[in-house]
Amino acid sequence: MTRQRQPTRSASISWPGASEPTGTRREIATAAQLALAWVLAQGEDVTPIPGTKRRSYLEENVAALAVQFTGAELAEIATALPPGAASGPRYPELSMKAING
């Protein structure tokens, strides 16, 4: 089961400019590496805490340190995905009841 229900997924993919990553980043890094690199670019007071259960994923996460965004790329991402643009709950209501007890 997907974590996003259809209404949320539709809202998420309709963001202007969010259809393709900048330049050739898609060719040199995975989506997870781009996400980690973006978090790392937010400042020294922000630290990503990725979870993993396989060594290969750990190595992939560490390789995100080599991905460096330019100021223009960070601005493009900020324009495409402004704060507050995410839509919907993280989990469906029934799952939240199971989590919260």
Describe this structure in words.
The protein has six helices and no strands. The protein is extended, with a radius of gyration of 16 Å. The longest helix has 10 residues, at 31-40. It is 49% helix and 0% strand. It has 101 residues and is an all-alpha fold. The protein has one domain (6-84).
Architecture blueprint of SSEs:
Blueprint: H1 6-13, H2 25-28, H3 31-40, H4 55-63, H5 71-80, H6 93-100
Number of strands: 0
User: What is the arithmetic mean of pLDDT?
Assistant: 78
Tell me roughly what share of residues is in helical segments.
40-55%
The global form is extended
Biggest sheet statistics: none
Number of domains: 1
Total number of helices: 6
Helix and strand string, N-terminal first? HHHHHH
What is the distance, rounded to the nearest whole angstrom, between the alpha carbons of the first and last residues?
21 Å
Low-confidence stretches: 1-23
* Beta-strand fraction estimate: under 5%
Structural category is mainly alpha
What oligomeric state best describes the polypeptide chains here? single chain
Tell me the Rg in angstroms.
16 Å
Tags for this model:
single chain, mainly alpha, 49% helix
